[in-house]
Specification:
Blueprint lengths: L2 H11 L1 H6 L6 E6 L11 E6 L17 E4 L5 E5 L3 E9 L14 E4 L10 E3 L4 E7 L3 E2 L13 E8 L9 E5 L10 E2 L8 E5 L4 E8 L12 E4 L8 E3 L4 E2 L4 E5 L7
Parallel strand pairs: 1-8, 10-17, 10-18
Antiparallel strand pairs: 1-4, 2-3, 2-5, 5-6, 5-7, 6-9, 10-13, 11-12, 11-14, 14-15, 14-16, 15-18
Length: 260
């Protein structure tokens, strides 16, 4: 994905956030400057509302962020946010800009306090919480897919219609049957075996879609696309502290009949 497409995709991915927050004066401002590295330019700071569930990455759960900001040449950033409480993560691609969860070799960190607990940043309406300093940065390593007692999760395999395991795809989890809008949870990219795991915060009926890109918006012609259940999404019923397995999804190419 080239720089233009990456920037365009980020704009589309977060356009709803930008519109929703257009008149909001509150926010968080600061700098990403890890020790022995200096200011991190060209990074992305993500804000996750704490109401969305557990902190991102702390247990393998992935939520789409509520907002983002790019760091400038001095590592500075400014997030515009509605009133609420947020977790912050910082991230910089090892190989060029592209949206999505962190991948092998990226710099990545969840903001934590001295005791290792995720920091919760409070935003008040009309107030900028500034002078925030993000000092953590580690080289990201993809987590092993692990199932442990007490985990609430969905697992399965992505394949093409010919039966070939599908790598480099995201599974996005929704509470709405039309699988549109912002998903509740997102998997890491699938590996060569096509297997995925998505950890869930609580039980319920969920709907799954597969995309090559991370986020929302109408698929482009030729993009891979899959929905659990086929053209009409089927619910995956998840129980607390239980793993719902065998959720296998066939993935094909999206054909845009509106084009041409």
């Amino acid at each position: 994905m080239n720089r233009y497409l990456s920037a365009l995709f980020i704009m589309l991915l977060y356009s709803s956030v930008a519109v929703a927050n257009e008149n909001v004066a509150g926010g968080i401002a600061g700098v990403w400057i890890p020790p022995n590295m200096g200011p991190i330019s060209g990074g992305i700071i993500y804000a996750f509302n704490t109401d969305s569930g557990s902190p991102p990455d702390i247990d393998g759960s992935r939520h789409l962020p509520d907002a983002l900001a790019l760091t400038d040449s001095e590592g500075k950033f400014s997030l515009r946010l509605p009133a609420g409480t947020y977790y912050l993560t910082s991230w910089k691609k090892a190989a060029g800009p592209a949206p999505g969860p962190p991948e092998e070799g990226d710099l990545h960190a969840l903001s934590r306090d001295e005791k290792g607990s995720p920091v919760k940043y409070t935003v008040k309406s009309g107030v900028i919480t500034d002078h925030v300093v993000l000092r953590q940065a580690t080289v990201f390593k993809s987590p092993a897919v692990r199932i442990t007692d007490g985990v609430t999760a969905i697992t399965g395999t992505l394949t093409t219609f010919e039966g070939t395991p599908l790598a480099d795809a995201f599974v996005q989890v929704y509470i709405n049957e039309d699988v549109k809008g912002k998903p509740c949870y997102v998997s890491y990219k699938t590996g060569k075996d096509g297997k995925f795991i998505v950890k869930i915060d609580h039980e319920g009926a969920y709907y799954l879609a597969v995309r090559a890109n991370y986020g929302v918006g109408r698929p482009v012609n030729g993009e891979i696309l899959g929905i659990y259940g086929g053209e009409m999404a089927s619910p995956v019923n998840v129980k607390d502290k239980s793993v719902t397995s065998g959720i296998d999804i066939k993935v094909g190419q999206f054909i845009d009949n509106k084009q041409g």
